[in-house]
Amino acid sequence: MKTTNIKKCKSIAISAILTAVIAISSVGALTGCGKSNAQPAQAGNEQEAAVTPEADAQGTEAVEAEGTEAADAAGAQAEGTEAAGTDAAGAAVIDANEYLSLWNENAEARQQLVSYMEAITQEGGPDFIPVENRIAVFDFDGTLFCETDPNYFDYTLLVHRVLEDPEYKDQASEFEKMVANKIVDQNTNGTKYEELPVEHGQAVASAFKGMTINEFYDYIQEFKKLPMPSYEGMTRGGGFYEPMLQVINYLKANDFRVYVISGTDRFICRGLMLNSPLELPNYQIIGSDESVVSAKQAGEDGLNYTFEQGDDLYLGGEFIIKNLKMNKVTVINKEIGMQPVLSFGNSTGDAAMANYTIGNNPYKSLAFMLCCDDLERENGNIDKANKMYDLCEEFNWIPVSMKNDWKTIYAEGVKYIGKQAAEEPAEAAEEPAAETVEENAEPETVEETTVEENEENAEQEEEELDNAA
Question: Is residue 22 classed exposed, middle or buried when 0-12, 13-18 and 19+ CB atoms within 10 A define those classes?
Fold first, then answer.
């Protein structure tokens, strides 16, 4: 029986190279050979006893050849599976080590994210999440991008427009100058202005009024080329956190839709992310809002005006809403219409979004918070980081240590040279700031740091979260 089987395998091996049709037929025959040989040991011994010595020698040689071919075929199949990134069942296999190579493998946040992903992508498993429900939301400043140098990107953009841009600074309104000088005072002295987030939004809207959307994007592209003061080898537009870009790519590979939910003006966000490593469509980039009007609208209410073919859109100059705290939850419901299952933030401005993500969610969900505890590679702030660690423990958020969890922060070749370098350009505007902000006697000094939270002090943060809970 075995001799017959061996001859059959030899015949198949030869015919496999003749034609495609014969090759297909031989696959079925070869499968039959494999099945015949995969029998219990006792039956195999009885078969060997019935074989003549001469046939046995030939059979041994043929079996060895067959075994080699089978091993080669199995190896080729395994190699093909690995290269294709699929498992034995044909499902896609996402290698977390490849996608998250800039994270330390022992980082608790990384481990929790990987375990989560394995659980929610296992079809038929108790934590499986259908693809259409895989929504992740990210804050921007301090979560995906350098938060302050010496202040937020959109704050430094306004200062540049109002106090430095030779084509506009002489046209800037007194209100715009007042707001810009508050930012400079904040950069230099750490002074806090509770009204600044809204005033800044209003000043941005008016300072860029009349630009088309594309002209505004072009302006931002030029501003992005300026150097980032506290770093060597990095421009204003180059402050993306490399490990967080990896997280976004990892989520995309696992069929997540990723949204940026920022307190920064949405058009500034979109301009900043244009031609950047963060590849997201504009409709997934959501931020604070300002008005947009038609070129021919001439102040007429939108209910009474019909957009005409060939018309263009301009920034209307009216600030609408600051997208922080509860407003983030509201805009998620309005523009996404689904509860996220993953949230990433870095401040109390993201607390509402985090709690909304993990509260009463029908699916397994997590909220991560970055802690700015790296003073060697980044504009860190230990006090703020420690407060966030405490809040993470209290509210069941997962802390991400920028110091201990990441192998690097910024792109290759970037070197942090200190906060002092970031503060120097602001000194030239210090004098007009003192004239404008004269009501604020003895401004509070923040221990030689840039401003990390401009909308509330530490006590207000904890009180607000206690009330929210």
Answer: middle
